[in-house]
Design a protein that fits this description.
27% helix; alpha+beta; single chain; 2 helices
């Protein structure tokens, strides 16, 4: 999901919540790039869209998930991405 727009991430989270069984878990690899809110696939470092681990946690919560764990990872840029594990309540 590193290239997905924030609104698309939220739509995916809602749809995954809809089909996942209660107690089921899902793992997401998403952007952690907050250098500029105007970031997009076309102009940001490694094509990462505007997103953070905290924004993702908020969106996941709003979609009905509990965040189990998040791990920020380095690729070509420090703290560029994050992997988040969520559980359906």
């Amino acid at each position: 999901m590193v290239h997905f727009e924030m609104m698309d991430v939220f739509e995916y989270l809602k749809d995954i919540h809809r089909v996942l069984r209660k107690g089921g878990m899902a793992l997401f690899h998403h952007s952690n790039n907050t250098s500029d809110y105007k970031n997009s696939f076309y102009n940001a470092a490694s094509g990462r869209n505007y997103m953070s681990k905290d924004l993702f946690a908020y969106l996941a919560y709003r979609a009905g998930f509990e965040v189990v764990e998040q791990q920020v990872i380095d690729w070509s840029v420090k703290d560029l991405d994050c992997v988040s594990l969520v559980r359906k309540n």
